[in-house]
Design goal:
Chains A, B: It comes from Massilia cellulosiltytica. The structure is a homodimer. By secondary structure, the first copy, chain A, is α/β, with parallel strands linked by helices. In chain A, 44% of the residues lie in helices and 12% in strands. A seven-stranded mixed sheet of chain A has the order 3-11-10-9-8-4-5, with helices on both faces.
Chain lengths: 469, 469
Amino acid sequence: MKLYESLAAEVEGQVARGVLLEGERLPSVRQASQRRKLSISTVLRAYSLLESRGVIESRPQSGFFVRARPRVSPRAAEPAPALTLSSEVDVSRLVLSTLRTIRTQGAAPLGSPYPDPAAFPAARISRYANAIARSRPVSVLDDLPPGNPQLIRQIARRYMEHGVAVDPAEIIVTVGATEAINLCLQAVARPGDTIAVESPTFYAMLHAIERMGMRALEVPTNRRTGIDVDALRTILASQRVAAVMVMPNFQNPLGFLMPDGRKRELVALLAEHGIPAIENCVYDELYYGDSHPCPLKTWDTRGLVLHCASFSKSLTSNYRIGWALAGRYAAQVEKLKFLNTLSTPSLPQLAIADYLQHDGFDRHLRQVRKGYAQRARMMAAAVLRFFPAGTRVSEPQGGYVLWVELAGGVDAMRLYARALEHGITVGPGHMFSARGSWTHCIRLNYSYPWTQATEDALRTLGRLVAELA
Amino acid sequence: MKLYESLAAEVEGQVARGVLLEGERLPSVRQASQRRKLSISTVLRAYSLLESRGVIESRPQSGFFVRARPRVSPRAAEPAPALTLSSEVDVSRLVLSTLRTIRTQGAAPLGSPYPDPAAFPAARISRYANAIARSRPVSVLDDLPPGNPQLIRQIARRYMEHGVAVDPAEIIVTVGATEAINLCLQAVARPGDTIAVESPTFYAMLHAIERMGMRALEVPTNRRTGIDVDALRTILASQRVAAVMVMPNFQNPLGFLMPDGRKRELVALLAEHGIPAIENCVYDELYYGDSHPCPLKTWDTRGLVLHCASFSKSLTSNYRIGWALAGRYAAQVEKLKFLNTLSTPSLPQLAIADYLQHDGFDRHLRQVRKGYAQRARMMAAAVLRFFPAGTRVSEPQGGYVLWVELAGGVDAMRLYARALEHGITVGPGHMFSARGSWTHCIRLNYSYPWTQATEDALRTLGRLVAELA
């Protein structure tokens, strides 16, 4: 292929891939010649060839522009991913595929794990960010691990207000709770180790275990009171477990609030064995009851509880700011943070610190909680009304997801696939186990405003379940 | 200890740790009683005790406030970390300690690896972010790995303009180049593997190798032309190397630009052996010459080059948005990204995409490059003038760091410690090797405006070197 032909083919390829869109200007002949070290005449010949093929057009005094009809972006054009399930469950692939169908198909977001972003005070937080960005340069040096000191102080204050005395020195700011969970797990266990988890398990825990090449041991979990401490005691008596990962408050997907007595018992059991607990507390601020729930951290006197949380569910997901209270592992987690992503971005940390100090986080939360608590009841009632008899639903005490056990052993992946044809997504139970449990369950998101469309979607789902039974 | 005493001790501890600052209000008696499930009288007794100790004071109709003199924040109060070097170099600890002294001591930033943030168009980018945050809710679902489609298109366009045809499908947006490098390395090699690197090596590469439990093999590197391809060829003939990590353009710390012929040769050699190359191209936009340098990716026909870059050095470090062009490993890197940090924050991706599409990135870069090129000469001249005879300096072709080989075998850590006493930091050569090479070299940052203080600091450094020689 001659030089001009190869340049023409390259440009045509970039148009086909959506890198260059209709009406966009190509680099000028002079620029292209300089940057590619080609002669002016070679570039001109390439552009003429593209013109003759109808890919670009020249406009007098302006240059060359893409003429081709707009291609849909390559991402959007991807076919919906095939959602078959191999016998060996690759949870992360399943989860990512499921999330993508929500994104790419504009389906009703019942399958989404994320809260409705319209409820976040995004504009207010952005105003703080903007004021900072306009007033002074922000250096990465100000926010090296463990993180921005102002934000760390605000986080510690919030725990104090809820009655948990946290040493600011054990707080490490992270990229969402996901990074916090990963770093904590890496700090306390090694590849090949066994990690005890709830069942069903929030899949982020399974991802962390998968990422590190560890093994998940699923412990029986009560729908109302959480992980079975007695069952765990029996397990610990007979086999080595490197760590326990739980969501004591408003577990995803079950929504339970572990009673304080149980939490104390769990912390005591683990302290006795010297086993660290990683608790994921991202929903703690979204309680429906009278007061903020206590994390396991409340009873941790030995620094064995690694507590992970984030602002992404309660305040804003625009920046994905999370943190770990890493107890006796704080120095190790801090170092792993530095190795993993160097530092958490500065401006978002500063903006959130300013918001927490000066704005109405509690007011925002009161409003959100009220809406979620109300919709929890509406969603449960609608499911029981539209789904076949024998359907069971959870009774979430916080958060914004409902767990539904389908009647008649209907496979959730089959329901998922059928629902998708109607533009509806659900969270298949398959995502919540590494050993293929919970295949007859789905998780539904009720964080979005309740509309006729929500009700229609639930009615459709109910009909599909009946057909599949 | 009685309940009220323990509450009082806890509050006093939070004041001492700087969680509560002078003049800040304590939770009201009613709040504290509800949240801690203590009686009103217990809280009142605790607060009275604190009042009698002079820690807090009550203000009529307002509540209780911290009275104690302001404590310096616990972070700021940390003593300067001891910077001794064990025989087995723990590069990441050394680097983090060094960076912290820059942050905490307000020293002249000659030791900083980051560009002067005052040169970034932070306010302009923030304006785009603000406009987005005010206009619509942004969902995590829009920006799942590989990343925001608009930003991915803008990144691909930029490569196209520089003459590199990139398939947008191989771009994965990450938390800075650090995450990109980590994920790429994890995708191509396993713990225990040997990774060939330049010598001196940019320490971020060593961190990635350390994080994965791999071994770094330091290959001779020419100060002007980069990694010695012939030496590498000899190594590959006799031992297994899982990957090669290089910075072909404006390497940190040497500043060289690998000639295109050498790059082609390197890509061909690795293709012949089927060995992937990870290239760190964070400084590519900061060239002093006529045109944008070519990355190794330019000659990669087999998808074996994993190219990592970021906006943090060229546009803004406020958000830490980086990316990988992961070639044939794109699917694997995308999955690792999902496992590592779930997704890169949305709002920053959208804001940068808007800036790239509508604003003056090239204008900004022209100005920055001109300043860096000029200061590169000024810094080199000043070092040669103030440092003892026999000092050698690099000739950076881009970026913003100068590499200085101290005369008389002066140990850079000793210079570092002495300089710190004068409020000056330098980048000790020890950071650039896992086997303790380059201990007589330092790296100096010249991205900041040149002032009398810069010249004074260099004069002081020169005097200290002479004293230590």
